[in-house]
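Question (not urgent): is this output format expected?
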Amino acid sequence: MRGIKIHAMVLAFTLILVGAGATLYQILVLDIPIKEDETDTVWVLDARLNFTAKADAPIKVQMHVPPKSDHFLTLNESFISPNYGVNVNQQDENRIATWSVRRAEGEQTLYYRQAISQRFGRATSEGQGQQFRPRPPLQGAEKLAAEALLEPIRQHSADVETFITEMIRRLNIPNDDNVKLLLGGDTSVENRARVIETLLAAAHIPSQQVHTVRLADSQKQSPELWLRSHNGKHWVYFSPVTGKQGLPEDRLIWWVGHEPIVKIEGGSKPSVSFSVAKTEVNTIQLAQTNDAARNKALLTASLYELPVATQSTYRVMLMIPAGVLLILLLRNLVGLETLGTFTPVLVALAFRETEVVTGIVMFAVITAIGLSLRSYLEHLRLQLLPRLSVVLTFVIILMALISLVGYKLGIEKGLSIALFPMVILTMVIERLSIVWEERGSMHALKTAIATLIAATFAHLLMSHPQLSYFCFTFPGILLVMVGIMLLMGHYRGYRLSELIRFRALARKEL
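Got this back:
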């Protein structure tokens, strides 16, 4: 017996660990939300391109658009350009959209829009960069100024990161003659980045310019310039103005390199303006409506892959174990005596259609009439099957009468009685009548009241929307419930009702 108990406990704890582990994996690793109403931030980025078309000339416009990144999830991408042909090509780290048209006149406006989310994005290792860069052809005073700056930087740095940080710090010293010479009086961000790249090349350290857009509500903003260098393991980002290391999480890389964002043939005066808008989208809906998000969240292998009608059925079915567990706790720990374990759960399911108060009234009325009918049939000495058949038929007749009366009186709840499981009511009536005969009318009444109380609590639990979502989204929790049920199967302690019942004995012992 002891071996069987240990076996059951090991099995129970194994199921609990497996179920809890699967649930935590979905929450912590797959980033699936715990709450159904949890929303996610979606950023909508618009790039507006304006230019003037030359008359009687074909037009070809090339503009950098954000490259694909695992850090952000692209929900949709659109090119709004009437009468223009559009294609997108990959060029090294960049993506370039090309608009073309045979003829156009006057002012032209093209739009690019992208909606992204960080919810199901994943930080991945970035591509390899150059490890060595030849010296630039510096001559004369510029060469001397560069060497004068690089010598102390080498002495005060230990690796690529500290070298670049120290360089940017020294370029911010306004009274340094070498800095003044290299900047040439131009302190713009673009010129600073050019000087930094030149100095890094003189130290054989390759670097790239990175143009980013900040993810913040704004009607108009300009790309922000950053520098990056590969340290042999990953890219290291730096602000060319402050020397701050690390690209912020709210920056989206738009393009890499020195090239302008747009090139145009057959037009003039191109200008690009950026705007960013923030919206909130339900996280689960976001994952369901996007293939990339579904794959990242592994929703393709979950119950969300089922048809919508089937999902609704399973949302109810997966709550049955929760109701059964509650009834088990009420019976084994509290000592509530009900008509079995599954009958209160079935009654609780029926309450989904009738609601609790109406369901209790209908249950009481139909059960009372059914018990009276069953008591009358007992005098006829009928066998079990014919007796149940008669009771079932009269239950259906009674349900139809209640629905008809409710309809005539304008009581809509009376119509839902047709959905009340007549088989459940028939079996309840039969089992209550047996309890009545074996243990008396008072015990049958207590059992019926206890069954209704347990069914009410089970209904409140099973109809809780958050719990329903949790069990449907994280079905591993069902294994945890099974483990608890196995542990309860070997519980032999006192019940709460027994402690109250025998409290007088405990006082005498004291």
